[in-house]
Amino acid sequence: MIITVTMNPAIDRTIEIADFTVGKVNRIETSKIDVGGKGINVSKVIQELGGHSMATGFVGGATGEEIKKHLKDKGIQFKFIDVAEETRTNIKMVDSLKGIQTDFNESGAPVAEKNIVALKKCIEELCNPGDLVIIAGSTPCNVNHDIYLELTQLIKNKGGKVLLDADANYLMEGIKATPFLIKPNLEELQRAIGTTLEGVEAIAKAGKDIVKRGITHVVISMGEEGALFIREEGTIWAQGIQVPVGSTVGAGDAMVAAMAYGLEQEYDYEKLVRLSMAAGTAAVMTKGTESAAREKIIEIEKQVQLISL
Ligand SMILES: Nc1ncnc2c1ncn2[C@@H]1O[C@H](COP(=O)(O)OP(=O)(O)OP(=O)(O)O)[C@@H](O)[C@H]1O
Ligand SMILES: O=P(O)(O)OC[C@@]1(O)O[C@H](CO)[C@@H](O)[C@@H]1O
């Protein structure tokens, strides 16, 4: 089974503004609402690919109810911990003239300690040997930096494999428990290791250093430059594919979803890389935090160019 853990889900409101100007009244051209949060986005894409997952994490208030309703309508299974605090709303602003996207993410209200304990228990009960567990995104603001280290250890003790997509200290701490796969974007990787990396070779070297620490797969997404897929056996650079950009929100999540789905289907490595890259690229073409259609992903798969480094 594939399990997704989203400790800080969100409703994403994507607004389009032509030529956004600071300090002025800006008129919103379009406004769109999607359910989001990284793990939930992963569940959405897995469903689109024809797979199944179980989504868990915290949800609360009217926004939390909206998330549950959407997942139910889509036929995505979930077992969330209901909390008193309202699930956050994040604003994604797309400047349709300049082609620039800006995210305004709320921190996420603090959750009670008893709920953190309940989530750990829920994950422990859900996880069985061989399961793939995706832990993705930020956490509510009062959660300790070592939470992903703790969850990774718990999941590994149950025989599960962790795919971790986190930022800064949460990523660095999580790495200490050697998850099976990590998928930082370049900025997240640089923040985690505290160094700026110039050029693909330097980025690949940083990824290889992490692989040496016992992590089987390191996937570094680099926006329009594509992504590096690094394992002990070697590094593949899947080059970026030029596509019309709707919104880049959720592109990284689509890559992680495809990796999880492909691993579950036991795809060979090259097919895994192609699917992951195609899923990320197709996600960029949709508006807001919408998942791309499976047919689009399959179509793009054929265009993926791989270079061995
Ligand atoms: N502007 C773009 N044009 C083409 N492909 C893109 C673009 N931006 C992203 N991608 C594709 O999507 C993948 C993931 O993008 P990115 O590195 O931005 O992930 P991310 O920051 O983790 O995304 P998110 O956190 O919003 O899910 C890239 O590796 C690339 O294949
Ligand atoms: O604040 P976090 O948890 O780091 O990221 C949250 C978020 O930006 O990630 C998803 C896209 O990857 C969005 O659906 C959501 O709003």
From TrEMBL:
Uppermost EC category: transferase
Tell me the protein family, please.
Belongs to the carbohydrate kinase PfkB family. LacC subfamily.
State a GO cellular component annotated for this protein: cytosol
Q: Which residues form the Carbohydrate kinase PfkB domain?
A: 6-292
Q: What does this protein do?
A: Catalyzes the ATP-dependent phosphorylation of fructose-l-phosphate to fructose-l,6-bisphosphate.
Task: Cite a single GO MF annotation.
Answer: tagatose-6-phosphate kinase activity
Pathway the protein contributes to: Carbohydrate metabolism; D-tagatose 6-phosphate degradation; D-glyceraldehyde 3-phosphate and glycerone phosphate from D-tagatose 6-phosphate: step 1/2
Q: Which reaction(s) does its UniProt entry say it catalyses?
A: beta-D-fructose 1-phosphate + ATP = beta-D-fructose 1,6-bisphosphate + ADP + H(+); D-tagatofuranose 6-phosphate + ATP = D-tagatofuranose 1,6-bisphosphate + ADP + H(+)
UniProt name for this protein: Tagatose-6-phosphate kinase
Task: Please provide the record's keywords in A-Z order.
Answer: ATP-binding, Kinase, Lactose metabolism, Nucleotide-binding, Transferase
Q: Which InterPro entries match?
A: 1-PFruKinase (IPR022463), Carboh/pur_kinase_PfkB_CS (IPR002173), PfkB_dom (IPR011611), Ribokinase-like (IPR029056), Tagatose/fructose_Pkinase (IPR017583)
User: What's a GO biological-process term for it?
Assistant: small molecule metabolic process
Pfam families (UniProt xref): PfkB
Q: What is its EC number?
A: 2.7.1.144
Does Ligase appear among the keywords? Answer: no
